[in-house]
Amino acid sequence: MIAYVKGNVTSIDEEAIAVETQGVGYEILCANPFSFQSDLHKEIKVHTYHYVREDQQLLFGFKKKEDKLLFAKLLNVSGIGPKGALAILGSVSVPEFVSAIEQEDDKYLTRFPGVGKKTARQMILDLKGKLIVWLPDEQNEQTIFFQEEGSDKQKREYIDEALEALKALGYSDKELKMVKPELAKANQGNVDDYIRQGLQLLMKV
């Protein structure tokens, strides 16, 4: 798999850019190719997703790694292909998209080309809770708060203690942010129960 391409941007058109590295020119499909206009004839690093099917191999490129990761997540949603995923990334920022998923705003999601109500609901079903690490910290905490709505203070304290224990075991803040919403949904008895549940979730991250 090709994780990224580092080289000189030699041309730009409506669908792709060409990047030359060590005498090889890579055609890289992008959501907004002309956003690379200022990089023409300069050396850059493009994060790439190598899309392989029996009848084709395509290289999709992104300025930010988080855009590439969201693209990969979107491809796992039934009804979303590479062109649809690229169209979404070309018209919205990652935090804005994640916020719409977390708020289950299917009306907002159906504004994207090729996304009907059924596909919007499928995106919410498949992605909710899995992308909040890309939200700004303040909005991320607010999302978690709403997911915990109805939980008592004791439960939140247990979760916080469990997360501190998991952090002491070496897990990163990014990993812990990803599992906190799932812990908020669970009904466990004490701190140890939440630690065990957290470990199970972290093994799947």
From TrEMBL:
Keyword Ribosomal protein appears in the UniProt entry: no
Stretch list, region Domain III: 154-205
GO MF terms, alphabetically ordered: ATP binding; four-way junction DNA binding; four-way junction helicase activity
Gene3D superfamilies: 5' to 3' exonuclease, C-terminal subdomain, Nucleic acid-binding proteins
Protein location: Cytoplasm
Quaternary context: Homotetramer. Forms an RuvA(8)-RuvB(12)-Holliday junction (HJ) complex. HJ DNA is sandwiched between 2 RuvA tetramers; dsDNA enters through RuvA and exits via RuvB. An RuvB hexamer assembles on each DNA strand where it exits the tetramer. Each RuvB hexamer is contacted by two RuvA subunits (via domain III) on 2 adjacent RuvB subunits; this complex drives branch migration. In the full resolvosome a probable DNA-RuvA(4)-RuvB(12)-RuvC(2) complex forms which resolves the HJ.
Primary role: The RuvA-RuvB-RuvC complex processes Holliday junction (HJ) DNA during genetic recombination and DNA repair, while the RuvA-RuvB complex plays an important role in the rescue of blocked DNA replication forks via replication fork reversal (RFR). RuvA specifically binds to HJ cruciform DNA, conferring on it an open structure. The RuvB hexamer acts as an ATP-dependent pump, pulling dsDNA into and through the RuvAB complex. HJ branch migration allows RuvC to scan DNA until it finds its consensus sequence, where it cleaves and resolves the cruciform DNA.
HAMAP family, per the entry: DNA_HJ_migration_RuvA
UniProt protein name: Holliday junction branch migration complex subunit RuvA
Gene expressing this chain: ruvA
